[in-house]
Hints:
The complex is a heterodimer.
Chain A: E1 20-25, E2 28-33, H1 38-44, E3 51-52, E4 59-60, E5 73-76, E6 79-83, E7 94-96, E8 98-99
Chain B: E1 2-9, H1 13-24, E2 29-32, H2 61-74, E3 78-80, E4 83-89, E5 93-98, E6 101-112, E7 116-118, E8 131-133, H3 134-143, E9 151-155, H4 159-170, E10 174-180, H5 189-196, E11 202-204, E12 206-212, E13 219-224, E14 237-239, E15 243-246, E16 250-252, H6 255-260, E17 264-267, E18 272-275, E19 288-290, H7 300-317, H8 323-340, H9 365-370, H10 375-378, E20 390-394, H11 404-408, E21 414-415, E22 425-426, H12 437-441, E23 447-451, E24 458-465, E25 476-480, E26 486-496, E27 505-512, E28 521-524
Parallel strand pairs in B: 1-2, 1-6, 2-3, 6-19, 8-15, 9-10, 9-15, 10-11
Antiparallel strand pairs in B: 4-5, 5-6, 7-16, 12-13, 13-14, 17-18, 20-23, 21-22, 23-24, 24-27, 25-26, 25-28, 26-27
Helix pairs in contact in B: 1-2, 1-7, 3-4, 4-5, 7-8
Amino acid sequence: xxxxxxxxxxxxxxxxxxxxxxxxxxxxxxxxxxxxxxxxxxxxxxxxxxxxxxxxxxxxxxxxxxxxxxxxxxxxxxxxxxxxxxxxxxxxxxxxxxxxxxxxxxxx
Amino acid sequence: xxxxxxxxxxxxxxxxxxxxxxxxxxxxxxxxxxxxxxxxxxxxxxxxxxxxxxxxxxxxxxxxxxxxxxxxxxxxxxxxxxxxxxxxxxxxxxxxxxxxxxxxxxxxxxxxxxxxxxxxxxxxxxxxxxxxxxxxxxxxxxxxxxxxxxxxxxxxxxxxxxxxxxxxxxxxxxxxxxxxxxxxxxxxxxxxxxxxxxxxxxxxxxxxxxxxxxxxxxxxxxxxxxxxxxxxxxxxxxxxxxxxxxxxxxxxxxxxxxxxxxxxxxxxxxxxxxxxxxxxxxxxxxxxxxxxxxxxxxxxxxxxxxxxxxxxxxxxxxxxxxxxxxxxxxxxxxxxxxxxxxxxxxxxxxxxxxxxxxxxxxxxxxxxxxxxxxxxxxxxxxxxxxxxxxxxxxxxxxxxxxxxxxxxxxxxxxxxxxxxxxxxxxxxxxxxxxxxxxxxxxxxxxxxxxxxxxxxxxxxxxxxxxxxxxxxxxxxxxxxxxxxxxxxxxxxxxxxxxxxxxxxxxxxxxxxxxxxxxxxxxxxxx
Lengths: 108, 526
């Protein structure tokens, strides 16, 4: 799908993936594989920033990738604070950058 | 409230091992794990494990994980996933969050096998997207098939930092540098050497000054530190990277035990806050046991043994087995565990500078400072010998608990003896048949087959190769030395892949004979 995916791995071979599906990131269509973590699909699409912090508006992305650190939370299907690194991707998911705890960008 | 004979928290290597032993003895066991899949971190471990046969040495971690899951299924172990244990209360009441619901269970015995969490370090820019934990890198590349980045700087030279650096290269990332504030490489020398020979520079006594970038990482600056870990001005080095990977240690996740009132201690040799327990995992709370990293940071191989012990001890506690069975089984497990805790990297040697091997040979200081054994140091190790014709050269220079090489050779050319940490020696008068089994069996990728003089002014060097694309016979390129720098031109004359090699390809390159003992890696010229 992109050069960020591992096509073939010297030890793991070709890793099995779910069905190729489409979801939206801030309204734009992005492709991913069903069942993989939302964060993996975003990473493969080169999308690094998942949210901006409430007070200082600093960007955050994947950090631990196992659901511990909560740095990667986003607004998914209208629900804020969803840990994208452990939430499986589904067809048509509406994934949005999180600003503080909302999907509305800060007033600058 | 549902009641179980045994509730285990954590379906990683130790928790599953404990469950298997307990279930085999007739206990009704449930294992709760917060993750979507069982196996803990085993499925991210794609390297061959160390140890001996009983520790499943030379088997790759994810394959050990598969075996363990099969064993657990066979024993009838019930594993509940997406189930986060959020409380352990008096009388072993266990509170579990499953989905959006809270469930209460009662365990007549409980084993806590929650493992460990990664440590972090802070520096300006450390919160930028692109700064990730080494575990995150493993998760992305080895579970989800996504590259963590294009150009990566690794902070941390322990086994995690070394192994993950190698894995990053295996999946197609470039590792620009391996950095550690410590003065010496923390992990196994063989892990460091296999990274260094590909050309990754090691910067010991260095750490990160700053991660650069506005929206995500675009670069990083490191600098040398003095003995009090202060930056030395003028030593700054800059790298263009999109990813900074942190591998700065692990801490036991012992919160549930503390919550339950188990006696705890702060023990730096075990990695932080750990429950006080005996050698079988009995805590100060009757019927509450621990196994794996939660009681002291080690590795998956020891966690699995500790798990089995805890499972048996828990079974004895509730009368599912008698003391004789327990003692008999635990004794052999203790022996296996002891084997893994020997050598230079034994828990009691943590942080210590070991200057001589058990054989009395000086440890390579280059290995500790730069990640590779220097050409003038390599000859002093017993695995490095010279003879006419093809023969194994074992660049194994530290006493680590590992011995698959001696069983791998059908001609018994290699000997370690009964002491699992001894350096391998070449058996005098033995005859190498160039089968390559030793090269493929060495978890440290430290064995080479060398023909020092083919009679036409050239030599051949056979090396383990676990990258893609796999060079083809006839490929021209350069040979790199142990330090990852070019030593001479080279041509690939043979490539072997076999099921018995388990994905370790054997690449034979021809080099001028004066480089037979220097050329240790091949890079094709594009």
